[in-house]
Each structure stands twice: as C-alpha cells, then as structure tokens.
Design a protein that fits this description.
The complex is a heterodimer of chains A (about 625) and B (about 150). Chain A is an alpha/beta fold and about 625 residues long. Helices cover about 40% and strands about 5% of the residues of chain A. Among the domains of chain A are: about 120 residues, Rossmann fold (3-Layer(aba) Sandwich); about 60 residues, Orthogonal Bundle (Arc Repressor Mutant, subunit A). In chain B, about 80% of the residues lie in helices and about 0% in strands. Chain B is built from six helices and no strands. The chains are: A alpha/beta (about 625), B mainly alpha (about 150). The interface between A and B is medium-sized, with 21 and 22 residues. Chain A: It holds the Pfam family Response_reg. Chain A: Keywords: Activator, Cytokinin signaling pathway, DNA-binding, Nucleus, Phosphoprotein, Transcription, Transcription regulation, Two-component regulatory system.
Chain lengths: ~625, ~150
C-alpha cells in the first residue's frame, strides 16, 4: 500500500484515525486523556508543554486535525495557545479544565475554542469531538465555494445580496477583494454555491461590518485578532481570512481617521465652538457604521455608493459609515443641510483656513479629530478620530450644545475608514460595534468638492436605530458626517439639510451636533450610548465635519452644518447651520439625508462622497 | 480455585468499601474499564502518576504557605487547582473535596485555613495511597493465582 492509500483510507474511516494533539501539564490527566482518546480510535499525540505543542503544529500544519488543551498550564496559558493555533493553523481547539466557571467557558468560546470540556473528561464526550473537525471543514469549503453571485456585482453594487440593503454602499472595492468573500447571510442574500469553487468574495455589508466593529470593540483594538473577532461575530461562511484582511483595512482606516481627526481638532479649536463648521463625522464605529449606513440605510447607499472607499471605507460608506445606526439614512451627511449651523460660512472659511496644507492625508494622519462637540449631550461620546482609544471609540456627537464640542477623536482603531490619499476621509471607526453610531467617515477626496466625504453617516445611521441612546448619538454624528463639506456647492446643502439632520435627530437624545461633525472616524465608544465625546475631538476642523452634532434636536436649533465642502483641502466640511428643525426624528432623517446626499452627489457630479479611500 | 475466588471476593468487597467511604468514585470505575489487554496496567500506571504528582503539588503548596514574607496565594491556588483536576480524573473523591475547600481559602487569602486544608489533603492522600496499594496488591495476587480481576460496578 502506498502512503497515499493509507492516508486516504485513514480519511475514509473518519472519525477513526483522526489525529489529535493533546496538551496538558498534569501527567495524570494527560495519560488518562491519551488513553481515552486512543480508546475512541483516534490517533493521539500527547505533550505536556504548550510550547512543544505549538512547535509540532508549526512544523506541519497538516499533521493534526484537532487540538485538545488544558487551560491552566505553567508555560503558556491555554487561551494563548488557543489563539495561536487559531491564528496560525486554523485548527479546531477544545479546551479542557477542571474549572467550569461560566466566565472561563465564555472566555474559551470568545477566544475561539470549539468546545469546552470539564475534567474529569469522560469517554462519551470524547467520542463526539470529531464533529468539530467536520464542521470546520464544511465551513471552509462553503466559504471557498460559495457566492459566485455576489461577486460580479460587488464591484459596483455591493453585491447582489447585499445590495438591497447596502446596495451601493457596499461597493466592492478592489481592496475589498479578499481571498474569500462571502456573501453575508445577514443581508439575507446568501448566495451560496458550495459547488462552485470560485473564491467567494465577502461583501462587508453594513451589518457585517457592524458586527465586526462590535467584536473589535469588545476585544479591544489591540487585542482583536481575527479568530476571536470571527468567533464573536458568529457569522457563517465568514472565514478568518476575511476577517483578517478586513481588520487590516480597518486598522488602516483608523489610522487615517486619526490623522484627520487631529486636523479637525485643530480646526475646531481654531474655529471655536459652537458653530463649528466642521463636519463632525460621527465617528463611525468602526466600519460598522459604514455598513450600517450603507446597507440598511437608504441614504447611505446612495451617498456612499459613490465612494469607493478603499477597502473598508467603501464599506463604511454604507450605512455603517454613517456611523449612526439607525440614522435614517446615511444621508446624514447632511451635507448642506445641517440646519443648525447658522454660520457655516464663517466657519467654513475658518475651517478652510485651518485646513492646513496637509490635505487629507495629513489630516487624517494622526490627527485626532477632536471635534469639540459641545456637549454632546447625550452621547458624550466623542468619536475619536485618529487616536481612537482603542476600546472606546467614542463618537463625538456634539451634545446638544454646540457642535464644536464634539470631539472626534480619530479612531485609531479603524483604519478602515481610510481617507483616500487625496481625500480626507473621516472614517469613523466604530470600534464599538454596538450602538455607537459609527463614525462617519468622511472621505474627502481631493479636488472634489464633495468627493470625499466619508461617511459621516455612520453616526447617523446609528442614530436611527437607536433611539435615544447611543445609537442615536451615533447617528447624529453620522448625519453630520454626512455633511460633507463641500465648499462649492452650497446649495446642495440646502436640500439636504433636512435629511441629514434628521438623522441627527435620530438620536433623540442625540447630541446636537451642531457643528462640525466629527467625521473622522470617531470611535464610538461602545459604551457610550451616545457618542462619547472623545477627547480628541476638538473641533474638527478641516476635515469634513459633518456636523451631526450640530443637530441639536433638543434644542431645536440644530445646527446642521451645512456641508460646505472645503474643497481645497479636499475636505468636505459642512458648515454647521443651525437648523431648527432637524433634530427631529432621527430615523427618518438620516435616511432622507442619505438619499439627499446621494442626490447631491449626483448633482455635483462628484463621485462621491464615496469615500475614496485611497488607502 | 478457591483461592482465586476468595481473593476475588476480597477484592470486590474492598473496592466496594472504598467507594462507600468516598475514597473513590465513579471515575475510578471508568478507569478500570479502560484497562484492557492492550493496557493491562493502566490503572496502576495512572495511580502511580497521580501519587507522584500529588506529592509534588503538596510540597509546592507547603513551601508557598511557609513563606513568612507573604504567601503567594495565586501559586497555591494554581497548585490546588491542578490537584483538583488530577484527583477528579482518577476518581479520588475525598482528595478532590478537600481541594474545593482549599480553593476557597486561597481566594480568601486565609493562610490558616489553607494550612489546615493542606494538612487534610496530605492526610487524605496518604490514606488513599495506602488503600490503593492494598487494592493493587489484591489484584496482583488474583492474577498470580490465575484469576481475573472482577469488574466492580
């Protein structure tokens, strides 16, 4: 018999002969475990050292089918080993422990374990562990083979499935092409063709992105590893590779946002308060915002569609981008229609002045957007743009007070919203996937008036959904975010005003983001119900502020920053205009906004607010 | 075969008493079932490993608790945790129960309580060791006499 034959025969007899690696520092348990496994007719290798186990695994990834590991080990924590295996080898891992604390079990699961067994382990439990191997294989197969459909469209139209929701927003960008793109089930468009061996493309719809961001936020940007994120997201047919590449983009985006945020902050500071002409981009909670914006929210789609956000951004555009979930429409960009801001023009000019030479790129880079959104009332979350606090990205939604207060701190975490090189993209990094309203990333494109405004929306979107709380907040920002500053077409703002702000309004509690929207990816703090005021946001200056915050719904004088796009810098900035009415229903407005924005886009012929992230 | 029968009966009775007194629990029975022709000394092997491990852990704990400067309860807890795991794997019920109490004292950082538990653990471990050694001796005698080890349910 040749080796192949043997091997194949072995495989055919699966689960008999399944190759298991058992790791436990306790010799008694290890011996027992090994014996039990052999009794189940598996092929067992045992070691008491986690390091040895890793070495063995690294030597030959295909040598084992399954790993069982104890939790408490002297040389390496079982969870760490779990992570490594998950990241590097993508093998199913079962945790074993004498301690059955719920917290510990939860930790195991979130770290990616497929199962958690308690000692003393019984043979009956071991007899079924092969199911994990099968399940994983099946998933991988599906991932690779499915989704032919979405791909073709994804480029333009966010895939078929996702198109509906995110539609346009999910523009497939080339960067988005990951090795495997899976159509999101969540969008209800799951075109799975397992038979096709084509590598499916993952369309990072708003929903998907939002989950991603939530997961990242939960883990903390520094500790977010694809495997864990994947586990937390719990999306079928999404592979670790998808998540990994998405994460990479996200990080880039965050970085970019932070730069923008910084710049904005500067500007904001300079401009002073309240009327910040900045567009405060609601920080997108990671990409999530975009997604949310894009997908579900109508507006976003339109608006964002045009952005070809680089990678993440693109997706961000989608509802998520708007950050605010629930914002009626990504439209939050209230370009132009930020009602509140009354003095947009002035601000704008100021902003413009601020906009330092560093266009886009500079801004984004490292600039923590601190838009001072004045009292973000509800949310005091400030999106951080740029330096996003890893976990708490707070979107800055200007509280009901002045817009300016909102601070948008760039999201460090969300690199995704990258600003295209030309454009400033404020990308909200919605780290917190949850309600935070995503930061609207505003991508600015150079040269275009509106072109790049990144989504502001995310915030808005979120606003929509959430009622009052954080989401709302987010949305506010989104709205603001949406307010891309367009220098030139002011008129555009007008019509839109309502829309975006509405979204702002979303947040019932939403913060009146009067002024600048801090677009830069503000990381919406997960915890902040509403946008937290991130410290960074100072006043988002140059960057497109979409000033969702300006919408003070409560006050009635919502400033909606008019999106005056400051073209030159390529930022889209919205001048906050006091907009009395907006604050209103969050939900609706965003959507309208989004749509309005979209329209505007067309009008202006800009390509987009699309976040063109030339990441 | 009277001898064998006698021995076997002794074995069964002794096993039953160990179970009754809580020295051993169902897990030990499982271990015995795992023993077969391929691994005829499985139970003895596991038990020996357990005793070795136990001694090591007890020493660790004693050393940690002796520290005058400050007891590293985390370390003690880690040892107790491990002992708990191995004792439950072998079916050493009483040892395991003491470990459970031991852990709460560790968490409470109660040195006195820990020391008491350590004493108890040591005591239980010695008892168990003796009993198991007696049991294994019986087993060997049966085998030597040509009989087979009865399976105690």
């Amino acid at each position: 018999m040749t080796v192949e034959q043997i091997v194949s025969e072995g495989k055919d007899q699966f689960p008999i002969g399944m190759r298991v690696l058992a790791v436990d520092d306790d010799p008694t348990c290890l011996l027992l475990l090994g014996t039990l496994l052999r009794r189940c007719q598996y092929h067992v290798t045992t070691t008491s050292q986690a390091k040895t186990a890793l070495k063995m695994l690294r030597e030959n990834k295909n040598k084992f089918d399954l790993v069982i590991s104890d939790v408490h080990m002297p040389d390496m924590d079982g969870f760490k080993l779990l992570e490594h295996v998950g990241l590097e080898m993508d093998l199913p891992v079962i945790m074993l422990s004498a301690n059955g604390d719920t917290k510990l079990v939860m930790k195991g699961i979130t770290h990616g374990a497929c199962d958690y067994l308690l000692k003393p382990v019984r043979i009956e439990e071991l007899q079924n562990i092969w199911q994990h191997v099968v399940r994983r294989k099946k998933k991988d197969r599906c991932n690779s083979g499915s989704k032919d459909k979405p791909h073709p469209d994804s480029g333009e139209d966010a895939g078929i499935g996702n198109v509906d929701n995110n539609g346009k927003l999910n523009k497939k960008r080339k960067d988005q092409n990951e090795d495997e793109d899976d159509e999101r089930d969540e969008n209800g468009h799951d075109n799975e063709d397992p038979s096709a061996q084509k590598k499916p493309r993952v369309v990072w719809s708003v929903e998907l992105h939002r989950k991603f961001v939530a997961a990242v936020n939960q883990l903390g940007i520094d500790k977010a590893v694809p495997k864990k994120i994947l586990e937390l997201m719990n999306v079928e047919k999404l592979t670790r590779e998808n998540v990994a590449s998405h994460l990479q983009k996200f990080r880039l985006y965050l970085k970019r946002i932070s730069c923008v945020a910084n710049q904005q902050a500067n500007m904001a500071a300079a401009l002073g308060t309240a009327d910040s002409a900045y567009l405060r981009m609601g920080s997108l909670n990671g990409l999530g915002n975009f997604h949310t914006l894009a997908g579900s929210d109508q507006l976003h789609n339109a608006a964002f569609r045009s952005f070809p956000p680089s990678g993440v951004l693109g997706r961000l555009n989608t509802p998520a981008g708007l950050g605010i979930r629930g914002l009626p429409s990504p439209g939050t960009f209230q370009l132009g229609h930020v009602q509140n801001s009354g003095n947009p023009t002035n601000d704008l000019s100021k902003l413009q002045s601020f906009v330092p030479g560093n266009h886009n790129t500079n801004i984004l880079q490292g600039m923590p957007m601190s838009l001072e959104l004045d009292r973000l009332q509800h949310n005091k979350s400030v999106g951080h743009i740029g330096e996003l606090p890893t976990t708490d990205s707070t979107t800055v939604f200007p509280g009901s007070g002045s817009l300016v207060d909102a601070r948008i701190t760039g999201f460090s975490n969300n690199p995704l919203l990258g600003v295209t090189s030309n454009s400033l993209m404020l990308e909200g990094s919605s780290q917190q996937a949850t309600s935070h309203t995503s930061v609207s990333a505003i991508g600015f494109q150079n040269g275009n008036a509106l072109s790049d405004f990144t989504l502001i929306a995310p915030a808005s979107n979120q606003l929509q959904d959430s009622k009052a709380d954080s989401q709302g907040q987010a949305s506010l920002i989104n709205c603001n975010a949406g307010q891309i500053i367009r220098s030139a077409p002011q008129e555009w703002n007008a019509p839109r005003k309502d829309a975006p702000y509405q979204s702002h309004a979303l947040i019932n509690s939403s913060i009146p983001i009067n002024s600048a929207m801090i677009q830069l990816g503000q990381c919406l703090d997960r915890n902040n119900s509403i946008f937290h005021r991130t410290t960074d946001l100072d006043s988002v200056g140059p960057l497109n502020f979409v000033d969702p915050l300006s919408i003070k719904h409560s006050e009635g004088d919502n400033y909606i920053m008019e999106p005056s796009v400051i073209e030159k810098e390529g930022y889209l900035m919205f001048q906050p205009r006091p907009h009395g009415s907006h604050v209103p229903d969050n939900t609706g407005s965003l959507k309208d906004l989004a749509s309005a924005m979209m329209k505007q886009e067309d009008d202006f012929g800009c390509n987009g607010y699309s976040l063109r992230t030339s990441i | 075969m009277d001898v064998v029968n006698q021995l076997q009966r002794q074995f069964i009775d002794y096993s039953a008493s160990l179970h009754r007194e809580g020295f051993l629990d169902d897990q030990f029975t499982q271990l015995q079932k795992l023993q077969d022709d391929n691994s005829p000394d499985f139970v003895v092997e596991v038990a020996s490993l357990f005793f070795e491990d136990c001694e090591k852990l007890i020493n660790n704990m004693a050393r940690a608790l002796e520290q005058q400067q400050g007891v590293d309860f985390k370390q003690v807890d880690a040892s107790v945790h491990q002992l708990k795991g191995s004792s439950s794997s072998i079916g050493a019920m009483r040892v395991k129960d003491v470990c459970i109490a031991f852990r709460s004292f560790c968490e409470a950082q109660n040195r006195e309580g820990c020391l008491r538990c350590l004493q108890q653990v040591t005591h239980e471990y010695s008892l168990l060791k003796n009993k198991l050694q007696t049991l294994f001796r019986l087993q060997q005698q049966i085998l030597a006499a040509g009989g087979s080890i009865p399976v105690v349910e």
